[in-house]
Amino acid sequence: MPPVSPELISPRSVRVSAARRLAKRNFRGKDRLFLAEGPQAVREAAAHRSDGQATLVELFSTVEAAERYAEIIGAAREAGARVHLASEEVIADISTTVTPQGLVGVCRFLDTPFEAILAARPKLVAVLANVRDPGNAGTVLRCADAAGAEAVILTDASVDLYNPKSVRASVGSLFHLPVAVGVPVEEAVDELRKAGVRILAADGAGDRDLDEELDRGTMGGPTAWVFGNEAWGLPEETRVLADSVVRVPIHGKAESLNLATAAAVCLYASARAQRASGGCRSVTAS
């Protein structure tokens, strides 16, 4: 297995320069590599494989982090990743965060072809249409993972899945469930419907109420939720593609919910309805 480098890697190293440039989308696309920062993301990356290959290919760690997270260093080496010890200055140079946690991994792209997602006959899917904020995209991905969704689809008008902010906001969930990228929203909706999936658009101005949908018992079947842009929601041309446009009811005085919060409410509502016959799984169950 590739050993941990015995000396601190130089800031002028070719490896450091190659990792640093992955902060930019064009280089990520060219190299088909992205950065995963922090112990949680690196731990999940070290355990992940895609198309028979380990996802984590390289890891930069401060000496302190290597001692604190010895099990992650070991897992990275087991995965075949090259592990470099680096100074805090080098980690700060590679990292895109204000306060780096001492671990930065270089990972292979891991998005899943849309056709493979359809072939798996998913029961719960999140479709991100025109979602431009990377933090929101990563947070919705995390919510989808927590709710037990089986796939996430980022349309061709949405943010880059591998934007460092998206990766950080997913808190490791990027490595847990299939994600398709670059799918036109019309194609996503059409093919999911052909696969027997009901299409629900989440919109604050929807003509159907989420509570009413739950009361009617209409939420138990395979469902794809379409979530729109943070600022202006779903355009009419996307709303009309859905089987129903559903609003999350506001029982208090709040003007609205942000995208990630609304997505969590909708996805958990579907997850509960789909699991009602067997009881709702608790995240605290042992």
β-strand number: 13
Spatial sequence of strands, sheet with the most strands: 9-8-7-12-10-13-11
Main beta-sheet annotation: 7 strands, parallel
Which H/E pattern describes the elements? HHEHEEEHHEHEHEHEHEHEEHEHEH
- Spans of at least 5 consecutive residues with low confidence: 279-286
Gap from first CA to last CA = 35 Å
Question: What key phrases describe this protein's structure?
Answer:
disordered C terminus, four-stranded mixed sheet, seven-stranded parallel sheet, alpha/beta, 286 residues
Structure write-up:
With 286 residues, the protein is of the alpha/beta class. It contains 13 helices and 13 strands. It has helices at 14-20, 25-31, 39-47, 63-68, 70-78, 88-94, 114-119, 134-147, 164-170, 185-194, 210-216, 236-239, 259-274, and strands at residues 33-37, 49-50, 53-54, 56-61, 82-85, 103-108, 124-128, 151-155, 179-183, 198-202, 208-209, 223-227, 244-247. The protein has a seven-stranded parallel beta sheet. Strands 1-6-4-5 form a four-stranded mixed beta sheet. A two-stranded antiparallel ribbon has the order 2-3. Helix 9 (164-170) links the parallel strand 8 and strand 9. The longest helix is centred in the last third of the chain and has 16 residues, at 259-274. The radius of gyration is 20 Å and the shape is elongated. The model is unreliable at 279-286 (pLDDT under 50).
